[in-house]
Amino acid sequence: MKPICVFDAHCDTISRCYYLHEGLRHNTGDLSLEKTACFESYCQFFALWTIKEYVDSDSSTMEETYYKLLRCFKEQMACNSDKIIQCRTARDVECAHRQGKAAAFLTVEGAELLGCDPSRLDEAAAAGVVAINLTWNHANALSGAHAEEPERGLSARGRRFVEKMEQLHILVDVSHLSEAGFWDVAEMAARPFIASHSNAKSVWDHTRNLTNEQITAIIENQGVIGLNFYEGFVGGSLDLDMVRAHLDRILELGGAKNAALGGDWDGCDTIPSLPAIDSLPRLYEHLLRCGYAETVVQDLFYNNLMRVVR
Fold this sequence. Notes:
Number of strands: 8
CATH superfamily: Metal-dependent hydrolases
Order of helices and strands: EHHEHEHEHEHEHHEHHEHH
Radius of gyration: 18 Å
């Protein structure tokens, strides 16, 4: 099989590099530049992420953690500049690929890293942040989360935060958000929004997965849904056919141009069939063997996510 193109919407590799003192070129995790060298072209959303158990939850400590994680990302870009370069747009990606380099996009998972403060978004945009999850698993000043205060939607500050994100062309990421918060985002969104690493709830009933109505709203908004390979969100038989079931649901709802990859690499225990990012060709080949048009598979693996960063 010829090398494939991959654009993945979520990994926690930078946090792993920071907390375990590993590097992006070679490490013991799911994703490294050694592993991604097998792809014809490669783009990745790299999330900055931490949890309350790692740091105190007061805003000053979270702010310090954000800067430490950001510095780690920038350092990894610098010391691996022969292999990968930070990008903000599809045009940047084209430039990176002409140089034979991979493309790295910076994201933030959990707005508490930015103090849930709309005034911090200009600084984030200047650093190259292209997407922000409003919440992680914990509720915050912007909204409830899927696992904590799920009935609470966007606060007034949350609405200001979303408005400012859209003004700055930062993608609103609704993975981990409460369903109430999701619908608030959907109602006010003037630009495409994304669920970077979420599956179909009608296939596997988990609060982190999306209902058919939520998937349809993202499709209608011209956003993308990144398939998550965490075994707890895939469910069932934990094999490639179960991943395919989540994809099929998105396709059945009209999402051929909206399905993407959102592996959640280095953030979870992935299913046995996809233990690391260099196992993605298995999924590509499996989909072709099952009769999916190669154009549909190429859109899933690369083109659909590329569209929202244009």
